[in-house]
Amino acid sequence: MTVYDQHSRHLRDLRISVTDRCNFRCRYCMPAEIFDQDYAFLPKDHMLTAEEISRLARIFVSLGVRKLRITGGEPLLRKDLPEIITRLASLDVEDISLTTNGSLLARNADKLKEAGLHRITVSLDALDDDTFMYMNGGRGRVLPVLEGIDAAAAAGLSVKVNMVVQKGVNDSAVLPMVEYFRNKGHILRMVEYMDVGNSNGWNREHVVSTKELLQQIGERWPLEPVEPNYIGEVATRYRFLDGGGEVGFISSVTQAFCSSCTRARLSADGTLYTCLFASEGHPLRHLLRSGNSDEEMEGSISSIWANRHDRYSLERETGQNSSSTKVEMSHIGG
Ligand code: SAM
Ligand code: SF4
Ligand code: SF4
């Protein structure tokens, strides 16, 4: 079955947040002053179990989802993550990936691969501890993340690295990061700093645009554009002319890609969000727990998707959307 929304976008990808907790406190995502010891994280009985996650994922697959991405919070904090992946791997999908801060990856990479994970994206914002620790609230050093990346590659997982670039914070880390990952053969993707949630104090002046990054990187290592792997690919791809591999750019702020956005997001408590910048979600947990059949769940989800009209990033540009309260990134995952 294929379901279309109000702008003729079909439902193709599902991002599943398996926890709202994290061992880091990245300033652009979970600033420590807000996500402190008094912060009300989800109680355990509100979190979906591995079985509930896989049942919902199966229902989404029957509605056309072909790609699953596990995220959080930090998904590796969840003890039953291998079980979740094993269950998802039994579904008829093209791709199962995971986004992680990489801090706990080195000792888990083999287990994730064995469970059936295909690909992994590791977030890393700098190669030097001073910058990295400033950005993650002093919670993690660079070396364990690099070891995690090596372990994931050794386990046979395809690895990408995402770097959020903030002006005046880690823009000086861009060229060292490109140099390091070119030589490793992993695709580094530069992510424009986004106004997700309400707590990171986002300001457009802190965004380093893809245009600026392309110029900076291209001056050092000349680049040429590469065709997208598929229509609607989020990252724009470039190849180093010297054969040093590829680099990608995720330009959510300066080149919004809402018109091809086929992504639904499920939070750890089973709320469905149809946009990263949504103010409100659609609670599915009580439907799951009150005896609804798969067919009834399919009906509810397809009507939510059919009513979807989100285009936040496009509307940000035209000033049409200055949404008041937005869901936090750590709640729905990136
Ligand atoms: N904890 C995992 C991690 O950091 O990879 C998974 C969850 S995290 C919310 C997913 C992605 O969102 C990370 O790559 C992170 O860098 C990115 N992210 C978080 N806040 C962001 C922001 N304000 N702008 C752009 N990317 C952001
Ligand atoms: Fe945690 Fe990832 Fe958010 Fe950083 S970006 S605080 S690692 S969830
Ligand atoms: Fe999709 Fe919303 Fe992002 Fe637009 S702003 S690309 S609709 S998640």
Automatic annotation (TrEMBL):
Sites where the protein binds [4Fe-4S] cluster 1: C22, C26, C29
Cofactor binding, note field: Binds 2 [4Fe-4S] clusters. Binds 1 [4Fe-4S] cluster coordinated with 3 cysteines and an exchangeable S-adenosyl-L-methionine and 1 [4Fe-4S] cluster coordinated with 3 cysteines and the GTP-derived substrate.
Catalytic reactions of this protein: GTP + AH2 + S-adenosyl-L-methionine = (8S)-3',8-cyclo-7,8-dihydroguanosine 5'-triphosphate + 5'-deoxyadenosine + L-methionine + A + H(+)
Keywords carried by this UniProt record: 4Fe-4S, GTP-binding, Iron, Iron-sulfur, Lyase, Metal-binding, Molybdenum cofactor biosynthesis, Nucleotide-binding, S-adenosyl-L-methionine
EC number: 4.1.99.22
Radical SAM core domain mapped to chain residues: 6-224
Enzyme class, broadest EC rank: lyase
UniProt: GTP binding residues: R15, R69, T99, K160, R263, A264, R265
Pfam families on file: Mob_synth_C, Radical_SAM
Pathway listed: Cofactor biosynthesis; molybdopterin biosynthesis
Family annotation (CDD domains): Radical_SAM (cd01335), Twitch_MoaA (cd21117)
Sites where the protein binds [4Fe-4S] cluster 2: C258, C261, C275
Binding annotation for S-adenosyl-L-methionine: Y28, G73, S123, M194
Sample GO molecular function, one term: GTP 3',8'-cyclase activity
Cofactor(s) essential for the protein: [4Fe-4S] cluster
Function: Catalyzes the cyclization of GTP to (8S)-3',8-cyclo-7,8-dihydroguanosine 5'-triphosphate.
Subunit structure: Monomer and homodimer.
Name used for this protein in its record: GTP 3',8-cyclase
Organism: Paenibacillus zeirhizosphaerae
